[in-house]
Amino acid sequence: MTEPIALPPGFRAAGLHAGIKKNGKPDLGVLIADHAYPAYAMFTQNHLLGAHIPVCREHLSRSGGQVRAVLVNSGNANCATGSAGIGDNRAVCRAVADHLGCPIQQVLFLSTGVIGARLPVAVIVDAVPGLCDRAHEAGAREFAEAIMTTDTHPKLASEVIHATDGAAVQVTGIAKGAGMIHPDMATLLAFLVTEGRSEADLAMGLRAIADQTFHRVTIDGDTSPNDTLLLWTAARHWCRPTADEHGLPVHPLEDSLTRAGRSLARMIARDGEGATRLVTVQVRGCMSDQDTLDLGRFVATSPLVKTAVFGRDPNWGRILSAAGACGLPIDIERARVWIGDAELFSEGKPHPQNEAAARQHLLDQEDVVLGIDAGMGPFCGEVWTCDFSDRYVSINADYRS
User: Fold this and answer.
1) Of 81, 112, 149, 187, which is the active-site residue?
2) Which CATH architecture best describes the domain 278-397?
3) CA–CA separation, 378 vs 375, rounded Å?
4) Is 187 assigned a catalytic role?
5) CATH number of this structure's domain 11-270, picked from the four choices 3.90.1150.10, 3.60.70.12, 3.30.70.120, 3.40.50.2300
């Protein structure tokens, strides 16, 4: 039996089937706090916005960032539905606020699913009381299951760190996503929940966390119009910076949130629609962190690279060609390409004698490594993706039917 993922004290969750999805699977989830707590959010940069994004922004502004409840439906994105969609979102927020006895601006209601269809508001509103009343401390997995669309399994991460006063502080992450994943300022839907308190500006800290985690995962190069990343903290226990054995600063809360985000980002990549391999693109030799991200994303979103991985073909030329086309400076004479531990190109020439080892890596390992060294500078990083299979095509061809 799967061990339940703990939520921090003061938070409860639940999920159920409200009737949005035709297949009877869970489609409505809620996270509830005992009191309104500070929250910080990042949203998609897609110019097509789901209705929940402007309403969430407005509510966060009006409440001063204080959130009591987060409701999420799956199966319907409430996107490209005009002013009616905005009204639908507000109506559901009002139902949650009335049931909990809190101001409407302390409720966030997010949606994910098919674009262009009106929300079945009555169905959702009818389900709100029962859903909220059944929320419990061990309900994180129920919530994670209720927010899935084409995901094959729920995505959760959790750990305990120690606050400055020695108290145990829970950090829990929940996410959904398997397609339309190519984040720009967020990911599909992700929630980081804790009781830790930081001396740092967590709004800026969330951006730094996203840069090292959710911004480094891509499935297909498509950014969802509903992408949202939320950090929500009860802020009970100070997690002040310390120093490691070398005197370098350690930020326990931010580091834990980053670890949770990294774990969730890799789960998203591993669960990419139709995927058979998690692919880590290792990038070396760049002139900035941004260059490592840009180059890694270019390789990771190349259909030729991704289909070669699915075919277990160690086609290093596709990796090098994608890197060369990304628009960043690359020193071909100093560039290197590798798959697994096998170096396939360096010093301006290929190493065909190593291709058998590279192919064996693609055959044997479910977590595969592709590497590119641009030969230009000291910066390095990773991007996570997956292979492209025929299942990806059928999943997306049949998505609405």
Assistant:
1) 187
2) Roll (3.10)
3) 9
4) yes
5) 3.60.70.12
